[in-house]
Design brief:
This protein is mostly beta strands. The protein contains 2 helices and 16 strands. The N and C termini lie far apart (about 35 Å). This is DUF3108 domain-containing protein.
Length: about 250
């Protein structure tokens, strides 16, 4: 069943969104290829209100790196940036600078929502009414009202990547307790539709457990990748907008 995106994801007032300026969340990435998980890398997400521009624009950054001792297997140095209009909950600019093994990609995109086009060095792409980029979609999804959903419901959205617009969705699975390297959480389990790429296989292979509180931050992610599987656990956080009330017990 497709849940009406207009009802669930309509733009919220800035004071109602799940995050605030100064929030930073850090994760450890564990890799398993022979039955044993090893600490293979780290990921961070940060949100900071942009100075010198509209108060509603936030600079969102997501970074992922492999530990240097594993770079000989598969080196990752990824950085995604989104300048996000909080009032309308949509990106105005997107920067992608990634290195994944031998694959390298840099792109810079401006979203002209008045004329409904994305502009990059590759030209212009027509946009639907409401579109996200790779990093803004994470923050956008944190404002979904899962309490109004039933297991199996999907929330659709559009995402821009590589000069194309994709029809994506997030599937609501249900509520679970999940034990992570940080602690045990009451969590909301979801499955996003992934695009096939250098690392991920695509489809609904990834599972994400989101804190069942007003922050709705990912506390664990599990997914197969091109070789092996990964597990990503929350390790540190600062300046959350709301108490992390979903934390049942520290490890």
């Amino acid at each position: 069943m497709l849940v009406g995106i207009t009802a669930l994801l309509q733009p919220l007032a800035a004071q109602e969104v799940a995050f605030q300026s100064g929030e930073k969340i850090s994760y450890t990435v564990f890799y398993n290829v022979i039955g044993l998980y090893v600490n293979a890398g780290s990921a961070t997400f940060s949100a900071l209100q942009k100075n010198g521009g509209p108060e509603s624009v936030y600079h969102l950054v997501g970074e992922g790196v492999t530990n240097s001792r594993y770079d000989w297997i598969f080196k990752v140095r990824d950085r995604y940036e989104s300048y996000y209009d909080l009032e309308n909950q949509r990106p105005v600019k997107f920067i992608r600078n990634v290195q994944e093994g031998d694959y390298r990609k840099y792109e810079e995109v401006t979203f002209d929502h008045d004329n409904k086009v994305a502009v990059s060095s590759k030209g212009k792409v027509k946009l639907p009414h409401h579109v996200q980029d790779v990093i803004s979609s994470i923050y956008y999804a944190r404002n979904i009202d899962f309490s109004r959903m039933k297991p199996g419901d999907k929330v659709p959205f559009s995402m821009y990547l590589d000069n194309e617009v994709y029809n994506m969705y997030i599937r609501f699975v249900g509520y679970e307790k999940v034990k992570t390297r940080y602690g045990t959480f009451r969590a909301i389990k979801i499955k996003p539709l992934l695009l096939k790429g250098q690392t991920f296989n695509g489809g609904e292979d990834m599972s994400i457990w989101v804190s069942d509180d007003a922050n709705r931050i990912p506390v664990r992610i599990e997914s197969p990748i091109s070789v092996g599987t990964i597990k990503v656990d929350l390790m540190h956080y600062k300046n959350l907008k709301h108490p992390l009330s979903s934390l049942v017990a520290l490890r």
